[in-house]
Amino acid sequence: MPRQEIIRKARQDKREGKSPSTQAGEFVKDEIDKIRKGKHGARSTRQAIAIGLSEARRAGVDLPPPRKGRTRKATRRSAKYAYEAGQGKRHPKRRPRVSRAVENVLKKEPRGAASRRALSKQAKRAASRRSAASRSAAARKASRTKGAKARSTAAKKAARTRARRRS
Question: Which residues, 6+ apart, have CB-to-CB distance to 29 below 8 Å?
Answer without folding.
Answer: 52
